[in-house]
Amino acid sequence: MKNITPWQNLSGAKDLPLYERLAEQIRSSIREGVFREGQRLPSKRSLSESLGVSLTTVGSAYDTLVAEGYLVSFPRSGFEISPLADLYLRLPPVKEYSPRQDHQQATKQMWRLDLDPHGIDKSLYPEKTVKRIYRKIIDAGALSDETHRRGLLILREELAADLKSSQDIEVSASDIVISYGMQGLYRFLFELLSPDMIFGIEDPGYPTLEHTLRRSARKYRFLPLSEEGIHVGDLEQKNVQIASLTPAHQFPTGLEYSSHLRMELLHWAYEKPGRYLIEDAYDSAFCYQPSVESLRKLDPSGERVLYIGSFSRSWSPGLRISYLCLTPDLSRKASDLGIPHANPVPIMEQRFLAELIRSGTYERHLNRARRLYHKKRRQLIAAFDSSSLPWEVRAGTSGLHFTVRLPEETDAGEFVRYLRTQHIRLQSVYQYCFENHWPQELLIGFGALPEENIPSAVHMLEASWEKYINQ
To answer: Which of 104, 252, 330, 400 shows its CA 20 to 30 Å from the CA of 63?
Structure first.
């Protein structure tokens, strides 16, 4: 544990109690990125001896920071930096380079054409409605609300009702946990599950998930995808006990798991005790034709499927609230352990989202968004079909991107690098591969692409492709 020099000087701001001065020093160290998520703080006793202050002072400072969400307390184990440090305060990223994560690198480049799969159409954002809702909840006393460790009850009730009405998924509000992003939810799960449990993750799949598991020293295995999904036999062969999947719209390939594969997965989960499936409902809100029922819906007792949902795609990246529907046994275990210790999501954000759903604003927004995205998707696919590009369009049933397959002799990674020299932003599926090999697929994101720019976008790709193959 490295020393933090400012902690040795608590003489400033003498109008504040000593414990608050210490708390502010720790806050500043976290904000400045001196400490990162998951790093352990000194014990109360060792810090009190180091600073020459009482145990009560250090304990009060730590308790204050836990209540604010900066720290997480572990019974008989101490304190460590909360996921909030990375997720909410937006600290400088850890400098780790991987060719697979080129898409995560910050860039100041101005793109002539941006087909990033994570983009959304900002014209859909109802700014006036947002202001009206915030005024309403402030007038109703939202600032004085108290939250539960699992999140605001009214929000969890609205989420449970929405899941029932939209997907016919039965879940109790008491089994829902609110947090920031996928990382926050997985950090919570790590406290519930044995450290020896082996995770299975899709390959290609989320680099962020692999990064979270690796940084948390969790065991995991890659599950290679075919064009139909993962192979259930790999779960058995690799001794996986909990598989994290995106079956509705697999990221990044866009494929949808079949009914047959979903039933095989459930059969695997029920074959032995202690097995679970994590169903990440990535982009499932944007489904353009009847789709297969979710794994959680197909699991009648809800005993084997953990369901993750979020609002960064369906509403706005700025609303980074995510939620987890626990299985009954894990919900009871969380209660017995008293976790999560504190909820990192501010009350105002939780109240806003609850009112957004309760008022019907969220549903109306989704309906508008589905119509617009479906229209752009149809037009873009039609433009590809009528173009000179020798690319095979592989459009799934949902989501804000689809894939195209280049001719066999072409390397998608090389073409993506060439496009950057033309100020065109595209990604390849290979960027999301760990051990698997998908060399010919490109991701075509249309969320942020203005409808009127679709013809010119395809013409630009045609011209770049012509230059690339003739260079």
So the answer is: 330
* Distance in Å from the first CA to the final CA of the chain: 54
Confidence (pTM): 0.76
Cα(35)–Cα(81) distance, integer angstroms: 7
Specify the amino acid at residue 16: L
Contact 423, 112 (CB under 8 A): yes
- Dist. CA 349–CA 346, nearest whole Å: 6
In this structure, the number of other CB atoms found within 10 A of the CB of residue 268 comes to: 18
Amino acid identity of residue 344, one-letter, is P
Q: Is 243 left (phi over 0), alpha (psi -120 to 50) or beta?
A: beta
Rounded to whole angstroms, the Cα distance separating 34 from 4 reads 8
Q: Which of 46-50, 99-103, 303-307, 393-397 has the lowest average pLDDT?
A: 99-103
**Are the CB atoms for 397 and 289 separated by under 8 Å?**
yes
Listed by start position, the domains of the chain span: 5-87, 103-124+366-469, 127-363
Q: Burial letters for 356-373: b for 16+ Cβ neighbours within 10 Å, e otherwise?
A: bbbeebbeebbeebbeeb
Measured over all CA atoms, what is the biggest interatomic distance in the chain, rounded to whole angstroms? Answer: 75
Helices (H), 106-238: 127-139, 153-167, 181-192, 207-215, 232-237
CATH number of the 5-87 domain: 1.10.10.10
Residues forming a β-bridge with 324:
177, 308
User: At CA 404, angle to CA 403 and CA 408, rounded to 5?
Assistant: 135
CB atoms closer than 10 angstroms to residue 86: 25
Q: At what angle do helices 153-167 and 347-358 cross, to 10 degrees?
A: 40
Third-level CATH fold of 103-124+366-469 = Aspartate Aminotransferase, domain 1 (3.90.1150)
pLDDT digits (tens, 9 = 90+) for 326-363: 999 999 999 999 999 888 888 888 999 999 999 999 99
Average of pLDDT values for 119-141?
A: 88
Options 3.90.76.10, 3.50.50.60, 1.10.10.10, 3.40.640.10; CATH for 127-363 is: 3.40.640.10
Please enumerate in sequence order all residues whose Cβ is within 8 A of that of 141, keeping only pairs 6 or more positions apart, or say none: none
Phi, psi of 281 (to 5 degrees): -80, 50
Residue 437 backbone phi and psi in degrees, to 5: -140, 105
- pLDDT (tens digit, 9 = 90+) per residue, 173-184? 999 999 988 888
Whether cis (ω within 30° of 0) applies to the bond prior to 252 is yes
Region 368-392 average pLDDT: 95
